[in-house]
């Protein structure tokens, strides 16, 4: 229940369920804390998330995994505290995995911390040398920092490795029918009612002040 509420955005309800568990003497496990920390992330309760992370080890004797570290990493990032997120990663006794570095990178992306974002991208590539999106974003970061030689090296490496970004797909339910599509298939939707819906949603986003972040656009074209 804790994980279910957390996954669907009901952070406060998830924490209420956890409080009920504690008052009833139900012992939590590592999965419970994934739900609790995720719930704290949804409602941006950094201090409470840190409290639960500490109690997981000190009170319940559960050794944190990289999944738990990623949750705390995301919490710091949601608060715009990318440096603190990196410091927390450094204090972790285990070896951070790709997911942890992606969480840090996402925070850097949201808060435009290019220097730390560059470092996180490089760590991702150390773990997975064929991560196409990390190469593209790192190239864009080099451009933002005016590191043109490094940018050229990344672009050359992409071509040498013949890397291709996997096509992202979106889906939407309309009139009890599910539509799946990608950017390369959008032309087939031009005459459909779905295209009118998508156009209307895009107009609402722009009217609300949304501005696409071209800095982090994952395009292969310059």
UniProtKB/TrEMBL annotation:
PROSITE patterns: PPR (PS51375)
Keywords carried by this UniProt record: Repeat
Segments annotated as PPR repeats: 1-28
Stored InterPro entries: E_motif, PPR_At4g14850-like_plant, PPR_rpt, TPR-like_helical_dom_sf
Pfam family, one: E_motif
Gene3D superfamilies recorded: Tetratricopeptide repeat domain
NCBIfam families with a match to the protein in the record: PPR
UniProt-recorded name of the protein: Pentatricopeptide repeat-containing protein
Phylogenetic placement of the source organism: Eukaryota, Viridiplantae, Streptophyta, Embryophyta, Tracheophyta
């Amino acid at each position: 229940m804790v994980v279910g509420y957390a996954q669907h955005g009901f952070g406060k309800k998830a924490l209420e369920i956890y409080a009920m568990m504690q008052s009833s003497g139900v012992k939590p496990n590592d999965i419970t804390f994934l739900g609790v920390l995720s719930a704290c992330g949804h409602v941006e309760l950094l201090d409470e998330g840190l409290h639960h992370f500490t109690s997981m080890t000190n009170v319940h004797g559960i050794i944190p995994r990289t999944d738990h570290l990623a949750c705390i990493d995301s919490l710091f990032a949601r608060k715009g505290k990318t440096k603190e997120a990196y410091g927390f990663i450094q204090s972790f006794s285990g070896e951070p995995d790709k997911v942890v570095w992606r969480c840090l990178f996402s925070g850097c992306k949201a808060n435009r911390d290019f220097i730390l974002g560059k470092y996180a991208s490089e760590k991702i590539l150390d773990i997975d040398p064929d991560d196409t999106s990390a190469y593209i974003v790192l190239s864009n970061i080099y451009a933002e920092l005016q590191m043109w030689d490094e940018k050229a090296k990344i672009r050359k490496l992409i071509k040498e490795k013949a890397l291709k970004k996997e096509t992202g797909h979106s889906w939407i339910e309309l009139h009890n029918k599910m539509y799946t599509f990608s950017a390369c298939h959008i032309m087939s939707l031009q005459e459909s009612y779905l295209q009118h819906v998508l156009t209307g949603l895009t107009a609402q986003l722009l009217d609300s002040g949304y501005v696409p972040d071209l800095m982090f656009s994952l395009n292969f074209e310059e």
